[in-house]
């Protein structure tokens, strides 16, 4: 342990998933305390128990949260603030996708993706800043996607929602700077990562063929590991990134360089 985020109090959404859980483990290993929030309450309860067993009680707390519901955000953040003694880092990680091109996608699916992926960042930031003002320096880390920078023919809702997260992150950064707050806001943009989100394509083609098919699209020649994303989050959550705000980290194995 080097304590890169010692003393940081981190609130993570979508924490029961592959990326969220990797972030939580990495942050606690480097000295942070984490509040794990997810609509899958059982999942974050299990993760918190695992972390507390390994690192000691009081390192992780679990809260139920539907990120599309403002009242649930208000409750979860208030409880997390009490549990951790403050909030200094917000990680807006919750996200979903729905398939279908512009003619096939239903309006209900469009609205759902926008609500989970974009409304959550708005609501989380709006209500977390109240607590983060009291725990500066702070960092807001919004999980976008390389799909927020590069379009595809068959994912209009995901493309549009992740592009919105990208630009919203910049607007939040400028707001905090204008307010004189020592709170940064940045977005991260992963490509294909080895998490359950790839399971549908694995089921369609088989694990080996699916992962080889995805890897061929990435110049570096492999899909990403959750630790690749967790390491970027560590940097953005730590004071090492005190001069970085309104920026984006592309974790895409070189896709955007083509």
TrEMBL record:
Q: Name one Pfam family in it.
A: adh_short_C2
Q: Which family does it belong to?
A: Belongs to the short-chain dehydrogenases/reductases (SDR) family.
Look up the domain of life of the source. Bacteria
Sorted alphabetically, the keyword list is:
Oxidoreductase
List, alphabetically, the PROSITE patterns matched: ADH_SHORT
- InterPro entries from the entry? NAD(P)-bd_dom_sf, Sc_DH/Rdtase_CS, SDR_DHRS6-like, SDR_fam
Q: What is this protein called?
A: SDR family oxidoreductase
Coiled-coil stretches are none
């Amino acid at each position: 342990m080097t304590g890169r985020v010692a003393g940081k109090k981190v609130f993570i959404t979508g924490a029961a998933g592959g990326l969220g859980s990797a972030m939580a483990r990495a942050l606690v290993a480097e000295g942070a305390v984490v509040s794990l929030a997810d609509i899958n309450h059982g999942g974050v309860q299990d993760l918190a128990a695992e972390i507390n067993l390994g690192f000691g009680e009081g390192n992780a707390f679990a809260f139920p949260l539907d990120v599309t519901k403002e009242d649930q955000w208000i409750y979860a953040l208030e409880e997390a603030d009490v549990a951790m003694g403050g909030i200094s880092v917000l990680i807006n990680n919750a996200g979903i996708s729905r398939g279908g091109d512009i003619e096939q996608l239903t309006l209900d699916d469009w609205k759902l993706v926008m609500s989970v992926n974009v409304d959550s960042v708005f609501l989380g930031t709006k209500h977390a800043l109240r607590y983060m003002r009291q725990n500066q320096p702070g960092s807001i880390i919004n999980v976008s996607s390389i799909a927020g920078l590069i379009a595809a023919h068959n994912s209009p809702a995901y493309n549009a929602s992740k592009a919105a997260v990208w630009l919203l992150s910049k607007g939040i950064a400028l707001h905090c700077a204008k307010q004189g707050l020592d709170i940064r806001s940045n977005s991260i943009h992963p490509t294909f990562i080895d998490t359950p989100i790839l399971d549908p394509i694995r089921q369609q083609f088989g694990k080996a063929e699916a992962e080889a098919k995805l890897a061929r699209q990435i110049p570096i020649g492999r899909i990403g590991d959750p630790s690749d994303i967790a390491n970027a989050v560590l940097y953005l959550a730590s004071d090492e990134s005190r001069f970085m705000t309104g920026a984006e980290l592309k974790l895409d194995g070189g896709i955007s360089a083509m």
